[in-house]
């Protein structure tokens, strides 16, 4: 009986952070072409459901190494409004989605926005160590790795094996992390957990894979004939 209650307590710790989170999407671009397209082709209920599914997937992925402690947020918010400098951005637990990008996107905008929300929600839940010392390309690459692993990589991404450096960022780094994960399953989760308490170091790759990150990059490039 004691074991039964202990298991219930463990499950409560695991499940409670997901169940307690609220998901709120607001369209502040109502009446604009991008805001109208968001309403017609995506919608608030679908976006809120996507935020929940993304969070559950991300937490499951980051918990692979058993040491992940997520940041504490009670609510994840997405605000759709007009800006042109990027498809989306995030500040802590709030994601800002560009109605201009939605307006001008050529293709299935719902699929594209799902991928963007997985990427941006990853930023909400990831650790970055001292972000001043962590390559921005790694931060963005981890978020795109989540998007890739979840099955929402878009057709317009560069091909595997592309790029000049492992920390070029986004899909370039995501594909490199995919390669590293093939060598050691869960390595992205391990790197993320290390950055909760430590500043990022290239030595992480040596500790986890026994090779420098540059050697691993060269091995990865060789696999694709580059």
TrEMBL record:
It comes from Xanthoceras sorbifolium. This is Uncharacterized protein. It comes from the Eukaryota. PANTHER family: PLANT BASIC SECRETORY PROTEIN (BSP) FAMILY PROTEIN, PTHR33321. InterPro entries: Uncharacterised_BSP. The lineage of its organism: Eukaryota, Viridiplantae, Streptophyta, Embryophyta, Tracheophyta. Residues 1-20 form the signal peptide. Keywords: Signal.
């Amino acid at each position: 009986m004691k074991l039964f209650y202990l298991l219930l307590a463990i499950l409560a710790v695991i499940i409670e952070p997901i169940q307690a989170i609220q998901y709120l999407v607001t369209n502040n671009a109502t009446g604009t072409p991008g805001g109208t397209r968001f309403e017609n082709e995506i919608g608030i209920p679908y976006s809120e459901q996507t935020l929940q599914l993304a969070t559950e997937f991300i937490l499951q992925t980051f918990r692979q190494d058993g040491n992940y402690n997520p940041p504490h947020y009670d609510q994840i918010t997405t605000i759709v409004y007009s800006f042109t400098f990027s498809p989306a951005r995030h500040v802590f637990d709030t994601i800002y989605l560009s109605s201009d990008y939605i307006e001008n996107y050529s293709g299935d905008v719902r699929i594209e926005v799902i991928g963007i929300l997985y990427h941006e929600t990853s930023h909400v839940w990831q650790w970055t160590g001292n972000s001043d010392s962590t390559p921005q390309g790694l931060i963005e690459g981890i978020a795109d790795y989540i998007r890739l692993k979840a099955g929402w990589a878009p057709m317009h991404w560069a091909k595997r094996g592309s790029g000049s450096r492992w920390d070029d960022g986004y899909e370039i780094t995501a594909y490199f992390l995919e390669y590293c994960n093939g060598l050691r399953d869960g390595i992205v989760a391990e790197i993320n957990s290390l950055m909760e308490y430590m500043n990022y170091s290239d030595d992480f790759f040596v500790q986890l894979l026994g090779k420098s990150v540059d050697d691993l990059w060269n091995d990865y490039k060789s696999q694709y004939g580059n």
